[in-house]
Recover the amino acids of this structure.
């Protein structure tokens, strides 16, 4: 085993000398580590820019999505009728008037039973839900609670409980888990148990007047209707007449998508500026100062506004839409985008078809720009990471080299101390011999 004697004979601090020599030897590795730190900072900056570009791409995709332009806003004249847009492209606008004739409810069956002891002599009973197959449930405990427990354990969509009335009899109550006639149930085989039933019902709407007036009825097993108007679900909570449902284009929702696009573009511009800025007073730059690829992103985004919109129509003709101010989008003096929702709404209401077609083209255009920049940045990130991996491999190789160098130096200085020790011993002996001659 090799170890340093640390100048036991020479008086030198050999461990300090070895450390100093190794520091000189490790200078290339130290420079590599500094390069890794710098490259890692650049990668983080690229990733920060890339995250803003991804947000811009997603916001542009929303503007260009057909579902955005077919979004509707439903309203109801009744507080007990809730209308909700479900999204998608299968939507329509218009008005519909109907009466809520009935509400959906589940079946409830009850039986008056003894407060204790067996209430039936049956060993089993059968439950059939709607038109489904009958289910036979075995009984070991024939009390009311035993029947309730067996039915609940079966898990077939009928729940049971025993209600204590405080009188001579209790109530065995059985209810369907879901409303609607399709979930109604029949119970057979419970000898000696007289069951009274409140039948399940469906919700029913009468639309457009009576049948004689050309109206029609719509039913649902729940209190929610999904096919009454395209793109809308309607939920009712009480019977009433003369409810009117209106649906119109969700212009405010469209405007919100444009605002999100403008916000995402501004966030990207701000991030690019932060990552490429240079302070002449302190002569300090940012991680991506001088990176032309990143700096030109701002110009690519801003040109989409300053140059206006041109696109190819479905018939192949070129359409020069012109200034984005028609959408309410403009550039301010600071180089940021602004959006005027009121101006967008006015333009859309004036010509919905033209604004929709141009809006989809605008979204596609911004998405293409963002996607190109994402590909460029992703490629740069990959290149930097590959370089970092290569440098880290070299750093690891240097660790092995330096460890071997340290062992070699320790051996060298240990040998030196040993030689000096031998010489010292010989000198002492020689001095003793000379002294003895005198």
């Amino acid at each position: 085993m090799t170890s340093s004697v640390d100048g036991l004979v020479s008086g030198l601090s050999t461990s300090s000398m070895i450390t100093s020599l190794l520091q000189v030897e490790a200078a290339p590795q130290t420079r590599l580590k500094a390069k890794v730190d710098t490259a890692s900072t650049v990668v983080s900056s690229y990733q920060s820019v890339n995250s803003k570009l991804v947000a811009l791409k997603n916001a542009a995709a929303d503007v260009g999505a057909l579902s955005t332009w077919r979004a509707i806003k439903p309203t109801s004249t009744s507080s007990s009728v809730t209308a909700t847009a479900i999204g998608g492209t299968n939507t329509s606008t218009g008005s519909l008037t109907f009466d809520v004739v009935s509400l959906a409810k589940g079946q409830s069956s009850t039986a008056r039973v003894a407060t204790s002891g067996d209430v039936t002599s049956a060993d089993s009973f059968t439950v059939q839900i709607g038109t489904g197959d009958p289910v036979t449930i075995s009984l070991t405990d024939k009390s009311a609670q035993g029947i309730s427990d067996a039915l609940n354990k079966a898990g077939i969509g009928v729940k049971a409980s025993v209600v204590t009335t405080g009188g001579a009899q209790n109530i065995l109550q059985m209810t369907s888990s879901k409303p609607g006639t399709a979930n109604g149930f029949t119970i057979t085989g419970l000898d000696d148990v007289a069951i009274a039933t409140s039948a399940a019902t469906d919700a029913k709407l009468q639309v457009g007047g009576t049948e004689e007036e050309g109206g029609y009825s719509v039913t649902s097993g729940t209190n929610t209707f999904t096919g009454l108007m395209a793109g809308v679900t309607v939920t009712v909570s009480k019977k009433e007449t003369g409810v009117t449902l209106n649906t119109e284009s969700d212009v405010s929702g469209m405007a919100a998508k444009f605002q999100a696009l403008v916000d995402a573009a501004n966030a990207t511009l701000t991030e690019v500026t932060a990552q490429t800025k240079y302070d002449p007073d302190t002569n300090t730059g940012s991680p991506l100062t001088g990176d032309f690829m990143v700096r030109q992103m701002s110009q690519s985004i801003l040109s989409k506004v300053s140059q206006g919109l041109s696109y190819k129509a479905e018939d192949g003709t070129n359409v020069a839409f012109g200034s984005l101010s028609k959408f309410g989008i403009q550039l301010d003096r600071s180089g940021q985008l602004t959006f005027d929702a009121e101006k967008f709404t006015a333009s859309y209401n004036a010509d919905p078809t033209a604004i929709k077609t141009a809006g989809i083209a605008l979204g596609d255009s911004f998405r293409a720009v963002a996607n190109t920049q994402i590909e460029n940045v992703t490629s740069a990130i990959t290149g930097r990471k590959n370089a970092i991996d290569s440098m880290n491999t070299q750093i690891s190789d240097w660790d092995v080299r330096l460890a071997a160098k340290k062992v070699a130096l320790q051996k060298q200085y240990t040998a030196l101390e040993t030689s000096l020790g031998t010489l010292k011993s010989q000198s002492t002996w020689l001095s003793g011999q000379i002294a003895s001659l005198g």
Notes: Residues 1-5 have pLDDT under 50 and may be disordered. The longest strand covers residues 240-249.
